[in-house]
Each structure stands twice: as structure tokens, then as C-alpha cells.
Design brief:
Low-confidence stretches: 1-5
Largest sheet: 5 strands, antiparallel
Order of helices and strands: HEEEEEHEEEHEEHHEEEEHHHHH
Oligomer: single chain
Strand order of the largest sheet: 1-2-3-7-6
Mean pLDDT: 94
Shape: globular
């Protein structure tokens, strides 16, 4: 009965979107994707899944509208920075009966298992350059942080207030999180880590003067290739310090994806097998983002250190929960796996802090 209902809903979506020749492409955590044709052009139609991370998804008009309006704005910003680096056509429809997005076909997914290290670096260089140029595009969004939607204010940041106060308070939170970790696990305490965290927070306090529309979800699933050219899709845009999301990208590709490769969420990608390719993409990204500017490299590395710290702290928070939600188990595994990974990541934090110290 559920399958029949899903098929009926798909047919309604296909008719409403005015598309033909649907061909199933695959599914992510939140959407299923179909390659379709509309007005003679290849498009990708995405339909929200009714169950994600083990639980039924409740319809939320404002949340869906915020997600899709933010994606549209991000695509526009990317294409303004680097024409063709994101889908140039994007529309969406949100209603209680059915919801979907329709966008240009961006190309083929990355194939880590056939990718050479040289190709990985080239892809990273392209992505890094796209990120850096997009940082410089005026986005016109009021507020900062995660994006939300209301009929009154339309798309805007969920936080308001003074930028410098926000940056300083966030830096204080990073240092406080490290203190909590050291108190809970004394073996984590390390003078070099403590020093470099202080350097990173002081640096961002001094230099962050403007926020950009940046992408928090930079997984390989969301990087396509059309020929040799990169196309970024399915972003998670937020208004944030631009170097912060560059550091997030580096943390994902040098630490996070491999560390979580055995979780239910990432197991199919076999990231542990393709660690060299992921690190090649990171190497290229830093080169493309920095343009060889050593001060930018130091800033990105500082943000990467903060991102790695927060990855460790997230694992600590999960362990404090009396019982893990099904969604948490899918994302991070059970408590024994989380405990093991916490100490592995804390070791990586120590090693990376020393790398940052040498690079300064």
C-alpha cells in the first residue's frame, strides 16, 4: 500500500511539473532523484522522501521553502561567481499534497574508484576556486546563521545581532568545548592544541568583517562533472564566516568522511578505501581556494582545527545521551563505535594542531 501511494504521488508530481521520460537516478538521505525531460531540456526532479534517517518526515512548509529558496539563491550566487558551476535552472513547488524541485542536469557523479590522484587534485582546485569567488558575491540576506523562511520576512538568517559579538562568542564556545572535553577525558589535554585553538579564535576575532553565503554540505555526492568541469548541487547554504566553510570542507575530506566511513550513512561510499582520493581533493581545494596566499592558508587551517574540535565535541555530546536516537545511530553508529572514534579524532586533533603550528 505504501509503495502504491508513493507511485501515485510521483505520477502527480510528474504531471504537475510537466516532465516526461522519468529515469530514476538514485536517492540521498532526504530526496529521491529522477532524470526527466521538460521543454526539450534534461532536468533533475527531486522528490522528498517520506522516511529519512529511520523516521517519518513531517511536512513543514516554512522549513521546505527555506531549504529550496536558499538552494536557489546559492545556485544564483555560484553562477554569478563562476558561470556554469551550479545548475542555471532551478524551480520548486511546496504543498501538503506533494513537493518537488526541478533543476538543470549538472553532469555525472564523481567516481572515486576510477579517479587518479591528479584528477582528484584538479577537481579540488576547481571547487576551491568556486568557493573563494562565491564568498565575494553579495547575497542580500538579512541576519546570519542557518536560513529560515517566514511569509513576513521571506528568506533570512535565523540569528541577528552584531557580527563581531557573534564571532567572539562563538570563539569562546570553541574554547569552552575544549575545556569540557579535557575535564571529561584528561588524556585529551594537550598544550599545543590549547595554544593553536587560542590562535585560531583570536585570528577570526580580528579578521571576520563580513559574512558570506556559504555551503555546509560538501560531500562527494554533491559534486558533479560535466566533461572536466565541476558542477555543485544540493547545497546546505548558511550565512557564515567564509573561511569557516573552507575549513569545514578541509575537515570533511581530510578527517570526517574517513572516520565515519563504517557508519550506516556512509558505508556504501567506502570512503576508507578512497582516502587518498579524498585527501587529493582537499589538497586541490586549499590550492584553489587560497590561490597560493599563505595568510589565507593559515586562516583556513585555523578554521579546520575548530571544525575538527567540534567533531570531537559532538561525539562527546552523543555519549552523554541516555539513549541514542535511530537517526544518530545511522549517522554515527552505536556508543562503542562513537567512543572509539572520539579518541581517534582527539588523536587527529593533536596531530593537526602540530601541523598548524609548523605551517605558521
Amino acid at each position: 500500500m505504501i509503495q502504491q501511494t508513493n507511485n501515485e504521488k510521483r505520477l502527480k508530481v510528474f504531471r504537475h511539473a510537466g516532465v516526461t521520460d522519468p529515469n530514476f537516478l538514485g536517492e540521498g538521505a532526504w530526496h529521491e532523484a529522477w532524470k526527466v525531460v521538460k521543454d526539450g531540456y534534461e532536468r533533475v526532479l527531486r522528490i522528498p522522501k517520506e522516511v529519512a534517517y529511520g523516521k517519518r518526515v513531517t511536512f513543514d512548509y516554512n522549513a521546505l521553502t527555506a531549504e529550496y529558496a536558499a538552494t536557489k539563491l546559492y545556485y544564483q550566487s555560484v553562477n554569478q561567481a563562476v558561470p556554469g558551476a551550479a545548475p542555471d535552472f532551478y524551480e520548486f513547488y511546496v504543498s501538503p499534497d506533494f513537493t518537488y524541485t526541478l533543476e538543470s542536469f549538472g553532469g555525472e557523479p564523481l567516481s572515486l574508484h576510477t579517479m587518479t590522484i591528479e584528477q582528484a587534485i584538479d577537481i579540488g582546485v576547481q571547487v576551491g576556486a568556486i568557493y573563494r569567488r562565491t564568498d565575494q558575491i553579495e547575497h542580500g540576506v538579512e541576519g546570519l546563521g542557518y536560513l529560515i523562511w517566514t511569509e513576513e520576512k521571506k528568506l533570512h538568517g535565523s540569528l541577528s545581532g552584531d557580527l563581531h559579538t557573534f564571532v567572539r562568542e562563538e570563539g569562546d564556545e570553541h574554547l569552552a568545548d575544549y575545556k569540557v572535553l579535557c575535564e571529561a577525558y584528561p588524556e585529551i589535554q594537550d598544550d599545543v592544541v590549547e595554544h593553536m585553538l587560542q590562535v585560531a579564535t583570536e585570528s577570526r576575532n580580528e579578521r571576520v568583517s563580513v559574512l558570506s553565503l556559504v555551503n555546509q554540505d560538501a560531500s562527494p555526492e554533491n559534486i558533479l562533472l560535466k566533461g572536466d568541469c565541476v558542477c555543485l548541487i544540493d547545497p546546505y547554504p548558511i550565512v557564515y564566516a567564509p573561511r569557516g566553510m573552507a575549513g569545514n570542507f578541509m575537515n570533511l575530506y581530510e578527517s570526517y568522511f574517513v572516520a565515519l566511513s563504517q557508519t550506516e550513512r556512509y558505508r556504501k561510499h567506502r570512503f576508507d578505501v578512497y582516502e587518498d582520493q579524498l585527501k587529493g581533493i582537499a589538497t586541490g581545494f586549499l590550492k584553489g581556494y587560497s590561490g597560493g596566499d599563505k595568510s589565507v592558508i593559515r586562516e583556513v587551517r585555523g578554521e579546520q582545527l575548530l571544525q575538527l574540535l567540534e567533531t570531537v565535541y559532538l561525539h562527546h555530546q552523543l555519549l552523554r545521551q541516555e539513549e541514542l536516537a535511530r537517526e544518530d545511530i545511522i549517522r554515527y553508529g552505536d556508543k562503542p563505535a562513537i567512543t572509539t572514534r572520539l579518541f581517534e579524532l582527539s588523536h587527529s586533533l593533536k596531530q593537526f594542531a602540530r601541523t598548524c603550528l609548523v605551517e605558521r
